[in-house]
Amino acid sequence: MKRMNLLKRIGLLMTNIGHTAIYSDSGRIVVTLLHLSETCIVDVKEQNKCGYNSVVLGTGDFKNIARPQLEYLKKRGINTRYRLYESRLSDLSGIECGKRVGVNHFVVGQYLDITGYSIGKGFAGVMKRYNFGGLGASHGVSIAHRSQGSTGQCQDPGRVFKGKKMAGHLGSSRVTVHNMKILSIDHENSIIAVKGNNVPGFRNSYIFVRDAVKKPLHKDISFSVGLLLGGNDDNASGLVN
To answer: How far is residue 41's CA from residue 60's CA, in Å, rounded to a whole number?
Structure first.
């Protein structure tokens, strides 16, 4: 039986910093680079108090954040203007507020699910939005080559059904890409390289990265959170069992 991802581990908010290429024995491989800014455990929610176990994480240093979020950070003695997000966890052992999370949370060879918002493309026609063929491009078709054609019905029912594929807003939707494989990890610069270039979002946009749900958990992962000790990015020193 395959060892599926039964151990719930936190996901991390990372930045899509662009694409590059690496060269292996099999040839050129396009990869996407993901950067993890300073990430800190801000709060821990427990089952007996909140009804579930989760970790509240803060990342980055933003100029403008909402007043309730700012007061939430000040109440916990944190001066950095973090962007907050929450990730559920099955086991909270060894997790304490104030500890930093590093890219050693992931290991080379494991698969990830990456969630983000696709690039917005504004109002688009049916050919771009749904890959329609359009109308004929011969003589007699007057400036209607990219039209979708008729959309109505006969006299009965005499209307356009809801959900009809028509021109409209394209992009800016929540997208999850499954089974992105980690090819390398730069612990010094907090960067991971995943195979492929289909990570959603534009450059420097935030994406949520977590363990793949359709793949077995990597054999080298036996910890719930990868923590940094004293700011050292040593992969072996910051593992929580």
So the answer is: 12
